[in-house]
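Quick one: structure for this chain?
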Amino acid sequence: MSSTIDLQAEASEFRETFKQVCDEVGRVIVGQQAVIEATLVALFCGGNVLLEGVPGLGKTELVKAMSRVLDLHFRRIQFTPDLMPADIIGTNVMTNDEQGSYRLEFKEGPIFTQLLLADEINRATPKTQSALLETMQEGTVTTGGEVRTLKPPFFVLATQNPIEQEGTFPLPEAQLDRFMFKVVVPFLNREELNEVVSRTILKQPIELPKLLNSEKILQLRQTLAKVVVADPIRDYACRLVLATHPSSEFSPGSVKEYVRWGASPRAAQGLIKAGRVRALSGGRAHVAFEDIRHFAAEVLQHRILLNYDGLAENVPVERLLEDCLANLPEDAAQMAGV
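Got it. Here's what it folds into:
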């Protein structure tokens, strides 16, 4: 009983902390509460985020604000076609010591940070994009036969412009799968746009407090592992992932017609992790079905590959996910009647 009470107390503490962080970041970023929430959920889970939106919506300011509130080191890389892997991870350079002897010394690249903004990641060549794969998955950098570990927590927030496609290199499926979330950043409405312009005119700096640090974030991640995930909840997440595969018994007709390949096992893991954070942010020590459904689009939309018919008819992946959720009952025993 005492362990249950302790866990509930930790859940209440997490709820207050999460709300404070969201509120403070929201003081800087106007009108993107859903984006702020999703980005922070991924960070607490240890995942990475791909932000898709037109320029000027505050994606860079979002990461800067997070780095100040969370007290994490921040760096930004502007991806361009001529960017090389060594420009990201670093390289060995020849130096000489006081005795005049020459030796190789490793100069760290901008990837050696905690919050990394990979701006317009799809403008770099696949060779450069792949330099991030090991770091995003393992939190390490291997160069010159030596493995270097980055200081945790390490978080990649990559951006890409959905409109301008000329001169870009679409991310391969293997790298897309490394992103826990893909978050579509909506354009501002009239009220929000007026607020942004007003702040620009007034140029009043906003001081953000440091609410967390590396150690506290890692402690909160340990709390996440204690959140209860009942067997039916876990099975629902797995069935939801299987529903994105056209050959599965759980997939609706639209998926069978328009999808070539569905989400990977990482998607099921992402649904559970995100569900745990959402449960804690609500002050609950257990995951509910709604927690799994809440971030289904962010977890699944970039992991679904359309077939020829789906591409030709420009079928929205979001619509397919809505069909999956609508046709998937919470009780697995009801599938026979679906």
